[in-house]
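TASK: fixed-backbone design
INPUT:
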């Protein structure tokens, strides 16, 4: 067993800002795995997520299940790209909680992308049919209204794109 801890990679950015695309690049690093909220939710709750309320309920269950799993991966030296949105203070607090008992390194990758660019990417993603969830413009606006950029006082190691 290695004594080196893994690194936790966190992703912050609005819908369609490129978080999952960046995650696929980060996971190319040796001894790194990706845990994608969208993939897990689509497989665990097929046809159940039809509203933001459904998403909040299902993602809450998933986070509860993932917390110890992610910590154990980090503890045994596996780096984790946590492709869950670090888009609110509460979400980032949950993510910081994973690190509390592990004391692993982390990087918060902040994709600072305009709403217009995200909407352009979102519409293309929706049209392609390749993503597990379709998000309409109105839902984008509603979800984006909760977005809070990371702040220095949250004490994350932020890498801004």
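OUTPUT:
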């Amino acid at each position: 067993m290695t004594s080196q801890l893994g690194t936790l990679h966190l992703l912050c950015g609005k819908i369609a800002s490129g978080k999952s695309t960046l995650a696929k690049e980060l996971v190319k690093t040796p001894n790194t795995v990706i845990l994608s909220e969208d993939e897990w939710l689509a497989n665990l709750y097929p046809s159940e997520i039809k509203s933001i309320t459904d998403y909040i309920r299902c993602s809450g269950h998933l986070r509860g299940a993932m917390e110890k799993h992610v910590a154990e991966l980090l503890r045994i030296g596996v780096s984790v790209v946590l492709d869950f949105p670090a888009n609110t203070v509460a979400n980032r607090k949950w993510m910081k909680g994973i690190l509390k008992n592990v004391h692993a390194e982390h990087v918060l990758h902040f994709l600072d992308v305009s709403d217009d660019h995200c909407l352009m990417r979102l519409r293309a993603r929706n049209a392609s049919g390749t993503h597990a969830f379709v998000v309409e413009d109105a839902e984008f606006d509603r979800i984006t209204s909760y977005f809070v950029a990371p702040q220095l006082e949250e004490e994350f190691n932020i890498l801004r794109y």
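COMMENT: The helical segments are 19-26, 37-44, 52-75, 89-100, 115-128, 137-144.
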